[in-house]
Write a structure and sequence with these properties.
Elements (H helix, E strand, L loop, with lengths): L1 E3 L2 H11 L8 E7 L2 E9 L5 E8 L4 H14 L4 E6 L2 H9 L3 E6 L9 E7 L6
Parallel strand pairs: 4-5
Antiparallel strand pairs: 1-2, 2-3, 3-4, 5-7, 6-7
């Protein structure tokens, strides 16, 4: 497993969620055997908050620790807002200290709602 930050990550997440991302954004993903299998797109940076769209698979402790270090230490955010339609990702976010704060209806298209999960710096498990 290798952590990558190139354009393939945003392309994978975009394809999986069916939504294009508009710059500026950054991305962090997981590459296995030369293929990006999971990723996070960081966008809508608002100083204390950063939106995080997550899709794919392969997320391990090392990746999650790096994700938290980027958001909470490097960027200095107080929270991250996770947007996903995958219940599996919601469960991971909850294990990391997140709480479901709402549902964005049709966020990913007709009948494709997004869970809004807030993870506070003080609640982050890594």
């Amino acid at each position: 497993m290798k952590i990558v930050t190139d354009e393939r990550v945003a392309l994978l997440v975009s394809r999986l969620v069916g939504k294009a991302f508009v710059a500026p954004f950054t991305a962090m993903g997981i590459e296995r055997d030369g293929e990006v299998i999971g990723g996070v797109v960081f966008n809508v940076f608002e100083g204390t908050d950063l939106h995080v769209t997550v899709a794919g698979r392969g997320f391990n402790r090392s990746f999650l620790a790096d994700l938290g270090a980027y958001v909470f230490q490097q960027l200095g955010c107080e929270r991250m807002t996770v947007l996903t339609e995958q219940v599996r990702i919601v469960r991971i976010a909850e294990k990391l200290g997140g709480e479901i704060e709402g549902l964005l209806r049709n966020h990913f298209g007709r009948d494709r709602d997004a869970y809004l999960v807030g993870i506070l710096k003080d609640d982050w498990k890594y």
